[in-house]
Amino acid sequence: MLKKIRNFLENTSGSILPTMGILIIPLGMAVGVAVDYTRYVNVRTDVQAGIDAAGIASIAELPNIKGNVPSNLTGSAFNAKVETDLKTYAQGFLEANITSNIAKDSYTFNITYIPATANTDGGVEIIANIEYDTIFGGINGQDGGPLLFNDKLSEKLTSLITTGNRTIEVALVMDNSGSMNGTPSGGSSTKISSMKTAALKLVDDLYKSAADSPLPDSVQFSLVPFAGMVNVGPLGHTNLDGNFIDVNGFNPAHNENLDWDGTFRTSSTITKPFSNHVVKVGSDFKNRFDVYNMLGETWEGCVEMRPWPHNVLDTFVSNQSTSYSAINNSMDADGNGTNDGAKALFVPAFAPDEPDSKYAKNKRIRWGRTSVRHYNDDDVYWNSYLYDFEDSDGKQLYTDESSSDPAYQIKGSTKQIQRTNWMFKYQNNNKTKNYGSWSGPNYGCTTDPITALTPTQSTVDSAINAMGANGTTNIQQGLTWGWRTLSEGLPFDQGRPKSDVINLKFIILLTDGNNFYDTDGDSTPNESEYGAWGYARPDSHSLKHAISNEATHNRMSEGLSSTDLTDTIYTMTSFDLTPNSHGDFNEIMNAHTAQSCENVKQDGVSIYTIVYDLNDTATEDLMEACAGPGIIDGSTTIAGVEFYHEADGATLDDTFAKIASSISAIRIAK
Fold this sequence. Notes:
By secondary structure, the chain is an alpha/beta fold. Among the domains are: 2-162, no CATH class; 167-230 and 447-667, Rossmann fold (3-Layer(aba) Sandwich). Helix content is 28%, strand content 12%. The chain is built from 12 helices and 13 strands. The strands form 4 sheets. Strands 8-5-4-9-10-13 form a 6-stranded mixed β-sheet, sandwiched between helices. A 3-stranded antiparallel β-sheet has the order 1-2-3. Strands 6-7 form a two-stranded antiparallel ribbon. Helix 2 (17-67) packs across helix 3, helix 4 (191-209) runs antiparallel to helix 8 (457-465) and helix 10 packs parallel to helix 11. The chain is elongated, with a radius of gyration of 34 Å. The two termini are 43 Å apart.
C-alpha cells in the first residue's frame, strides 16, 4: 500500500496534483503520526504492565520454585535452576496476561534472578525489548529525500521487583463464636476447622514470600480470637503487666453492679439489708478484683467495652498512678473539654451473681444441685451462682416466707437490681467453684488470650491451632483489639512506628455471624444478659460511682449522634437507642463497629474483611464498608485496592490465598 501511495505522490501529470500534494503530505504526516504513536503507546503500556505483574507474581512464586529445586543443587547451580524455572513461570504469566491484540513476535524478554545478600535486596529483573511495525512507516526518502517515518519503533523496558523493600504486620482477627462449630455451605468440616487450615496456609505463604528479604522480622503476625468478648490475658500472662487494667476501680464502668456505697457501706463496714447483720470488710475493697478474691476465683482475662469514645479509639492510660484525679485529668479524648482519662482504663469483665427468683427456705440457685423454685412475680436470671439470702458463714438469714419477714420484702422483680448489687453475698464466699465460662464471674469469657505481634511462625501456628468455637459475636471488640496489637503504643507495643515508611499494617477480619447481644429472655429490668457492654439497663437503675459520683448507665447508646457517625454507613435515625431486642442490639453494635473501622483506616491500617457463609445483608454491608486501605497523611497507603471478600466452605481457601497473594504483591510492589 505504501508503495502505491509513493507512486501516486511521484506522478506529476495533471494540473491539480501539485496542490493536492501540498495538502496530502502534512495531512498524511499528522494522521500517520497520531495513529502510529497511539498504537505504539498502547503496546508499550501493556508490555510494561505485563512485565511488572510478571515480576511481582514471580517473586510471590519464588518460595515454591525454590522448594522444588533438587536437593543436590547448591550455590550457582541452585541459582541457575531457580532462574530457569522463574523464566518459565514468567513466560507463562506474560502470555496469559498481556492483552491478546499484542503479537507475541513484537516483544522479547529476559528474566534475571538476583539472589539477596547481606547488603542488597534480592529480586527479579525483567527486560523486555519491543518492536512495533508502523502503519505509515517506510516513507523514508528513497530518492535522497528527508526521513519522515521509521518502519519500526523499538524500546527497551525494564521492571525490577525487589524482595526486601517492605515489612508487613498482620493481625488475624478470627471469629471464635459458637456458630463456627457448624458446617459451612460447600464444606465437609466445621467452619472453625476450615478457617484454621486456610489461616495456617496464609501465614505460611506470607512467611515464605519474605524468605529472601534482608530486612529483620519482615513479616509479623498477631492473633485475636473473638466471640462475645476478647481475652487479653489474665494478670501475670506474658501479654500483660497489668499496666492498662483498672485495678483501682477508677473507670466508672468498674462498679456498675457493685454497690460499695449507700446502705451497704458505712466507713469500713458493709451493712447487709437487715439491721442486725453487719460484715466488716477492708476499706480498700472497691474493685472487681477484690470480689474475685472473695469468691476464690481468678479473672480469666476478658475485658469489657470501654465507655465511648474510648471504645472506638486506640487510647491508652497507665494505671500506675493511684490518684483518680491524676489519671482522669490526663486525657480529653473527644475534645469536649471534659477530662475522662479514667474511662480509658480497661475494665476486667465481671459477671455479677444475678438474683435468685425469690427468697425461700432451702432455696436452690439455677446452677444448683436440685430444683429451681419459680414464682410468677419474679423471673429467673440466667447467671445466678450464689444464694442471695445466705450469710458469709453459709447460714440462711431467714427461714420463713411471711410478708413480715425482712427478706420477703426484698423479693420481687422491682428489687432484682438491688439484689444483684448486694456486696455481702460475696464476702468470705471463698468456695472455689471453678464455674467456667458459662456461669460465675467469668461468664461469657470463652476465647483464648490474644497472641501478641511476633515474627515467630511456630508461635502463630500454635495459637491458630488452639482456637475453639464458643460464645456470641462482638465484631467491634475483635477489630479494635486487632488494631491495638499493631500499634506502636501500649497496651501492645510490638508494632513498628508510623514513621517507618517501609512498613505496612493489615487486619484480616473474618466473621460468620452478625453482631449479637443476648436479651435476658425473662423481661427483667436488665434488658439483656451480661456481656462486654455490661447490662442494657435504663438509666433509672444506675448506681453512682463511689469515687467520681458519676451515675453509670447503658453505655451502648453513647457516641451515636449524627456527628459521631460522620463518614460511616449509619445515621442516628437508623436504629433504636433504647435496645431491648436482638435487632436493636445488632444495629447499635454495627454503628459502633462502623466508627471503629473508620478510625482504624485513618490510623494507616488496611482492612481485609471476610464474611464467611453468612446470608445477612446488614453484616455484609457493614463488612464491605469496613474493608479498605489505610490512610496516612491524608492519602491511601495502597491506592486503588479493594479488600472485600465473601466465602463459603468451597471458597474459603481460595479467599485466604487471594489475600495472601494481594499482601505479597503489595509488600514487593515496585
